[in-house]
């Protein structure tokens, strides 16, 4: 362990000696912990981090004045669609994806370093239950989807296959996540195929460029954003592990999307057959001002432009078909080749520019009293996973249905958007659509069949002529019948006819593995 004089000298070089101002008051254990934390910070990197944070925060927010002239939609040849392609092409993509999965060439990588602060909980988001009849957490839903897609690929190709599950955590989420997985027997997955690793942490910085003390013996630290992935891959030799396993393609996704299709064979197959080294799933923006980043080109290279950087005039622009010109909404759902990740981690990561997040950061005042600020007082610097798009040699975007694939859990119940009730309804409405498509009928409490929904609440199902209820029900409205389908029974609505066709069910109805076996008997 570094001595106090050595740490003090390093902090002087960084211009951050104030972090030791309470050192003499600390008990030996506290002092040792603080010195260990500070000793791990490189002086030059700390000085530059604090300088860049203060300088970036001083820049006025809003779009760069010349951005509109540099902005272009992605060329049509770089964009695919799950719903606007012909069925034969979709099947071709899907079969290629299943083939790569069966060859053990596909891994999934979960970004799970953030805390559930906005959600109003003190534990990782993946542990959250949104109130499904089964009481499954986000982690369990994801684990079961991996198991089901492995099963589907294995059945098609007559083999047993494995999709390794890499989980990037942070100092805040690693311990609770590891314990949660152990308590749930890794959701019946082989622990050797669940690889957790930790992203770096960076000090929060005051507006005048000083690292913030959260407690007398602890610096206020925050994860370095989901773009910290690329350093973490190197720090923990994750790419070397992928190479040993024969992994060539990696599906990266964010923890909070309850509808995420892990290792989606259609998306994987589309990217592989297009020869892409980098790809992004997108959804069509619901309205011009929707607060979601836009996948487009800037100066001729692919990029995600944050909604706050797009002027209202640009956001409103429409193409000849009447659709928004900049309509491809980023949903943090990406495809990378292992080769591309290796190139980014070894060559391009230092070129990624941090983004500024102004936050309320708890701190101790000059007398050592803890303070919880009522307004933002600090800067957290983050990198984003999509910041690497400009380095791709062959970038593609793949548009999917929002109703089928995107409903993020971000906010507490008090917020009107992206809260637990909204995400729960999105999943249950999806399962209700799947059940109707498979020929199921639902009964009310008196045993009468439930009537159809108004036609205005229906949408065309992907790749089919039949029409099914949309998830765009009036706010607060539950599906006509509560139907939950286990991912272990169906990954994306496939294979349900053998259990449901022509049968009647009362709400709530859970189709799990046991119920499926009973219905098949």
TrEMBL record:
Gene Ontology biological process: UDP-N-acetylglucosamine biosynthetic process
Pfam families: UDPGP
Keyword Acyltransferase included in the entry's annotation: no
Domain of life: Eukaryota
Gene Ontology MF annotations: UDP-N-acetylglucosamine diphosphorylase activity
InterPro entries, alphabetized: Nucleotide-diphossugar_trans (IPR029044), UDP-sugar_pyrophosphorylase (IPR039741), UDPGP_fam (IPR002618)
Keywords (A to Z) from UniProt: Nucleotidyltransferase, Transferase
Sequence similarity: Belongs to the UDPGP type 1 family.
Protein name (database record): UDP-N-acetylhexosamine pyrophosphorylase-like protein 1
Source organism (scientific name): Nyctereutes procyonoides
Species lineage: Eukaryota, Metazoa, Chordata, Craniata, Vertebrata
């Amino acid at each position: 362990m570094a001595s106090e004089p050595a740490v003090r000298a390093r902090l002087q070089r960084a211009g951050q000696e104030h972090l030791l101002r309470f050192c003499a008051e600390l008990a030996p254990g506290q002092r040792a912990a603080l010195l260990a934390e500070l000793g791990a910070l490189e002086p030059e990197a700390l000085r530059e981090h604090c300088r860049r944070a203060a300088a970036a925060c001083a820049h006025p927010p809003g779009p760069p004045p010349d951005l509109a002239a540099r902005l272009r939609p992605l060329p049509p040849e770089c964009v695919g669609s799950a719903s606007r392609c012909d069925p034969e092409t979709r099947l071709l993509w899907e079969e290629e994806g299943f083939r790569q999965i069966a060859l053990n060439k596909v891994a999934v990588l979960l970004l799970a370093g953030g805390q559930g602060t906005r959600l109003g909980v003190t534990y990782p988001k993946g542990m959250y239950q949104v109130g499904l009849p089964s009481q499954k957490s986000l982690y369990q839903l994801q684990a079961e989807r991996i198991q089901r897609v492995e099963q589907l690929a294995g059945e098609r190709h007559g083999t047993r296959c494995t999709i390794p599950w890499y989980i990037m955590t942070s100092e805040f989420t690693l311990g609770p996540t590891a314990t949660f997985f152990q308590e749930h027997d890794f959701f019946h997955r082989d622990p050797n195929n669940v690889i957790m690793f930790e992203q770096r942490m960076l000090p929060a910085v005051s507006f005048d460029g000083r690292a913030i003390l959260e407690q007398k013996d602890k610096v206020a630290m925050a994860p370095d954003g989901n773009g910290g992935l690329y350093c973490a891959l190197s720090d923990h030799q994750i790419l070397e592990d992928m190479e040993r396993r024969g992994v060539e393609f990696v599906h990266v996704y964010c923890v909070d999307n309850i509808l995420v299709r892990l290792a989606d064979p259609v998306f994987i197959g589309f990217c592989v057959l297009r020869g892409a080294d980098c790809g992004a799933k997108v959804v069509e923006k619901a309205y011009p001002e929707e607060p979601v980043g836009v996948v487009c080109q800037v100066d001729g290279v692919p990029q995600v432009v944050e909604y706050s950087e797009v002027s209202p005039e640009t956001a409103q622009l429409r193409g000849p078909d009447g659709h928004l010109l900049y309509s491809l909404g980023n949903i943090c759902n990406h495809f990378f080749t292992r080769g591309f990740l290796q190139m980014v981690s070894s060559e391009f990561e230092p070129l990624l520019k941090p983004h500024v997040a102004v936050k309320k950061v708890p701190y101790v005042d000059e007398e050592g009293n803890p303070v919880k600020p009522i307004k933002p007082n600090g800067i957290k610097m983050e990198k984003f996973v999509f910041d690497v798009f400009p380095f791709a040699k062959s970038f593609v975007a793949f548009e999917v249905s929002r109703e089928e694939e995107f409903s993020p859990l971000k906010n507490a119940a008090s917020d009107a958007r992206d809260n637990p009730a909204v995400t729960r309804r999105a999943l249950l409405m999806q399962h209700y659509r799947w059940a109707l498509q498979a020929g199921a009928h639902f009964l009310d409490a008196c045993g009468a069949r439930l009537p159809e929904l108004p036609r205005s609440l229906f949408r065309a199902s992907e790749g089919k002529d039949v029409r099914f209820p949309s998830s765009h029900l009036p706010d607060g409205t539950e599906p006509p019948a509560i139907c939950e389908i286990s991912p272990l029974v169906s990954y994306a609505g496939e294979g349900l006819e053998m259990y449901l066709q022509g049968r009647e069910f009362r709400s709530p109805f859970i189709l799990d593995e046991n119920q499926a076996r009973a219905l098949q008997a």
